[in-house]
Automatic annotation (TrEMBL), chain A:
Coiled coil: none annotated. Residues 260-381 form the ABC3 transporter permease C-terminal domain. It is a multi-pass membrane protein. Keywords: ATP-binding, Cell membrane, Membrane, Nucleotide-binding, Transmembrane, Transmembrane helix. The keyword ATP-binding applies. Residues 19-226 form the MacB-like periplasmic core domain. One of its GO terms (molecular function) is ATP binding. Its main location: membrane. This is ABC-type transport system ATP-binding protein.
From TrEMBL, chain B:
GO terms for cellular component: membrane protein complex; plasma membrane. Gene3D superfamilies: P-loop containing nucleotide triphosphate hydrolases (3.40.50.300). This is ABC transporter ATP-binding protein. The lineage of its organism: Bacteria, Pseudomonadati, Planctomycetota, Candidatus Brocadiia, Candidatus Brocadiales. PROSITE patterns: ABC_TRANSPORTER_1 (PS00211), ABC_TRANSPORTER_2 (PS50893). Residues 8-229 form the ABC transporter domain. Keywords: ATP-binding, Nucleotide-binding, Transport. Pfam families: ABC_tran. Belongs to the ABC transporter superfamily. Macrolide exporter (TC 3.A.1.122) family. GO terms for molecular function: ATP binding; ATP hydrolysis activity; transmembrane transporter activity. CDD domains: ABC_MJ0796_LolCDE_FtsE.
Length: 388, 229
């Protein structure tokens, strides 16, 4: 019934101020709800895009992350002979033995410090990650103390520009280039020659070995070969799965945080909507009596007021999502709790988030409107008509 | 003993209200008959039970005892849902304070009762235009109630009351909130509805000059009908 819808809508528009205030209350909740899920989504996207499907990450068997993993030189050398490895343009096997260490660095524009990942790389590390591109400067030369930094690092930390020098692990390191790795975790890393870094950090072992499969289908075979070979104590994962798994803990944490925060806030918003709707019912008592006199049933009255509250929820949802969508233009950083390093990423809005947020907001409207609508529908006709 | 011309037959109706622990006996053994096409004024001092009787006739409330038959239907036996449906078909309401819906235009206010029928949108529009032209308000269709004077609002309300072509029109102090000229206009209009369109009208009023415009009168005093006045 079109007229009934307009009736509910216009009633909302008529009491503009209360409608706006109530909807804003709901919008705030939707904003918190949507932004935290967007955060989780953005984090997941960043980490997942860090991995590519043809790549395999090999870690020590019990290790969940590269930071915890150790692979000694012998095992790493045997890995280089595996037949499943793809060949690069230079005819060599696409495999990189890498080192991962964390150092603390000073943030720009604040006194804060944060962990940053230093990745010791091999000759093929760049070709294994085609999404990593040098944007200024040049590659580090092998056998020197030269490093390149990710764009997010360059943006967020002191002393990280081109030609600058960083001091860590008893040496000075010259920054000879800045690379961009899109919205991936690599943008938050510093890369240098693995052997040089191992020397100065006094490390005897690599952290991980990354390799490209000749064909993604060879993964199960490779996995079986490595786990059956007694010389290895290694775990094998597709690179995509590795990063997805890293994102999950964090995303779950954020989701739980988001849901508990919004549940608390939503109580306020629902109460707000309820007060607004009770006031609307009280103000329109005679009107309700009139509608009933004309022959509208109790359930039509219930429906009209409930609809009004649902539309209120819809407005709130739209406003909240509008605010939340502005966050997309923001890059934020968070602690990656798996590696305890800083990770830069963007809020990411998805159709699923939009649907969930709207459903949530409309549900708040429903919850707030139910009792008032019920009261409106229970009114006695004669009594309400006397109310003028 | 059903008479073809009898449209309303009230038999031994009692009605009381509870006020706290007190019982207020409002109507005492009311009986009344009315023929099709009548224009009755229910008169009496305030608090005598006029509105209560009118509400019972209009199916807004239930009797304690007795029957009310309208056009052959004993409405005291109807369930709440059936009674609402019955009202939408058989009763046109005219209120003292017009009771138009503020957020709907004159046109939409008149269309409102038709939403309860199975008429198509086009048919509804035809009925609404016809009703608005009867009350001479066809040039104000897009106005909202607060853009109309009291007399104009009451005319729109009358259009709303007749748009479904109900069996009876009930009016509770229809001129109670109007100045003398507007009141005369509304009474002229009701007279026209009665004479030209044959509408049966029951009007509650305590204003003698309004009462005179009706074709018959009943006086209520302390809940009892007094036919002799
Ligand atoms: N819903 C109600 N609850 C309690 N008392 C009522 C109710 N409706 C009417 N009354 C009482 O019934 C009496 C008659 O009221 P009413 O029919 O409105 O009189 P009138 O229309 O003649 O002024 C009054 O004393 C009024 O207070």
């Amino acid at each position: 019934m079109g007229l009934l819808f307009f009736y509910s809508l216009r009633n909302l528009l008529t009491r503009r101020l209360t409608t706006i205030l109530t909807a804003l209350g709901m919008a705030l909740v939707v904003f918190v709800f949507a932004s935290i899920i967007m955060l989780a989504e953005g984090l997941k996207k960043t980490l997942v895009e860090t991995g590519s499907s043809g790549n395999v990450v090999i870690l020590r068997k019990s290790a969940e992350t590269e930071v915890q993993s150790r692979i000694d030189r012998d095992q790493a050398s045997i890995l280089e002979t595996l037949p499943e490895i793809a060949l690069g343009e230079d005819g060599q096997r696409l495999i990189a033995k890498e080192l991962l260490v964390l150092i603390t660095m000073q943030k720009k524009n604040s006194d804060g410090i944060a962990n940053v990942i230093i990745r010791g790389i091999g000759k093929h590390s760049f070709s294994l990650r085609p999404q990593v591109k040098l944007i200024t400067g040049r590659m580090p030369r092998w056998g020197t103390s030269e490093i390149v930094v990710g764009q997010s690092v360059a943006k967020r930390f002191k002393n990280t520009g081109l030609q600058r020098t960083l001091s860590f692990a008893t040496r000075s390191w010259n920054i000879v280039g800045v690379f961009d790795a899109g919205d991936t975790g690599f943008s938050s890393e510093i890369w240098g020659d693995a052997d040089q870094l191992m020397q100065s950090f006094r490390r005897q072992t690599y952290s991980s070995v990354i390799l490209r499969l000749r064909n993604p289908n060879l993964f199960q075979g490779l996995k079986k070969r490595i786990s059956n070979d007694p010389r290895f104590t290694l775990g094998v994962m597709r690179e995509k799965d590795y990063y997805l798994k890293q994102s999950e803990t964090m995303a779950t944490f954020l989701r739980i945080l988001g849901i508990s925060l919004t549940l608390i806030f939503s109580i306020g918003a629902v109460v707000g909507a309820m007060i607004t709707m009770f006031a609307a019912v009280a103000n329109r008592t005679a009107e309700i009596g009139t509608l009933r006199a004309l022959g509208f049933q109790r359930k039509s009255i219930l429906f009209a007021f409930l609809l009004e509250s649902l539309i209120l929820g819809f407005f709130g949802g739209c406003a909240g999502l509008l605010f939340a969508s502005l966050l997309q233009f923001l890059t934020v950083s968070t602690m990656n709790f798996q590696t305890f390093s800083e990770l830069a990423f963007r809020f990411s809005i998805t159709p699923g988030i939009i649907i969930k947020s709207m459903a949530f907001s409309i549900f708040m409207g429903f919850a707030g409107g139910l009792l008032p609508a019920f009261r409106a529908s229970r009114m006695n006709i004669v009594d309400s008509l006397r109310e003028v | 003993m059903r008479n073809e011309e009898l449209i309303l037959s009230i038999n031994n109706v009692f009605k009381s209200y509870h006020r706290g622990s007190q019982i207020v006996r409002v109507l005492e053994n009311i009986s009344l008959e009315l023929e099709r096409g009548a224009f009755l004024a229910l008169m009496g001092p305030s608090g005598s039970g006029k509105s209560t009787l009118l509400n019972l006739i209009a199916g807004l409330d239930y009797v304690d005892q007795g029957t009310i038959e309208i056009d052959g239907v004993d409405i005291t036996t109807l369930s709440e849902t059936d009674l609402a449906r019955w009202r939408s078909v058989n009763v046109g309401f005219i209120f003292q304070f017009y009771n138009l819906i503020p957020v709907l235009t004159a046109f939409e206010n008149v269309e409102l009762p038709l939403l309860l029928t199975s008429l198509s949108k086009r048919e509804r529009q035809k009925h609404v235009s016809a009703a608005l032209s009867v009350v001479n308000m066809e040039d104000r269709v897009d106005h909202y109630p607060n853009q109309l004077s009291g007399g104009q609002q009451q005319r729109v309300a009358i259009a709303r009351a007749i748009v479904t072509d109900p069996t009876i029109l009930v009016a509770d102090e229809p001129t109670g909130d109007l100045d003398r000229i507007s009141a005369e206009n509304v009474l002229d209009l009701m007279d026209r509805l009665n004479r030209d369109l044959g509408k049966t009208i029951i009007m509650v009023t305590h204003d003698p000059s309004a009462g005179k415009r009706a074709h018959s009168m009943e006086h209520l005093d302390k809940g009892v009908l007094n036919h002799d006045l």
